[in-house]
Amino acid sequence: MLRGATLALLLCLTGCANPWRDAFAPARPGAPTLERLAGPAIVREAPWERVGPALERARAAIAADPQHPDDWPIEKRRAFDAPLLEALRVNAADFDIVGRSRFTSTTPLDPADGSLARAAAQRGAVMAVWSSRFLGRTERLVSEPVHSYTSGTLSRRDRDGKRRTETYSETTTTYVPVKVQADEREYIAFFLAPR
Questions:
Q1: What is the model's pLDDT at position 33?
Q2: Domain boundaries, the chain
Q3: Which of 114, 191, 176, 115 lies closest to 145 in space, CA to CA?
Q4: What is the pLDDT at residue 133?
């Protein structure tokens, strides 16, 4: 029973990781947390060819502005977000950006698997628009099982002084880290809420 509970806990801990949720950053520090949605959010994809240039223009606009973005009034923030929302193919008059999630991974992700929709709903977003791009090849460590087999014979004397021989066999699995080449991708998702 203990073994089953341990296995269930291990599966939950390894299977419950959600990079979309873990990498979430609010659009504004101290922004109020929206009420969690009862169901999952809508998930859409936007091509990187639209999102990438919009992010570069946004970065340049922030660098050129003498005021820190955290101090912008809501009207200026919405005007700043409008071109990005257009690149995401959503109507800027209907949505605000609640936050975003940005990370790199060598593990292929499927945003349609429900993890992005759940992460967005947890933040009160009704929609998540994601994009990704290939960054290049990189090395990563994976654990490969190495099996070893041992067998032998043991001789011993029992309580009566008689010699007893016993054979044994044992299988051991050790996981060894191995470097492999993997494709690295950058993922970004914007969490959107209605105005």
A1: 65
A2: 18-135+184-194
A3: 176
A4: 95
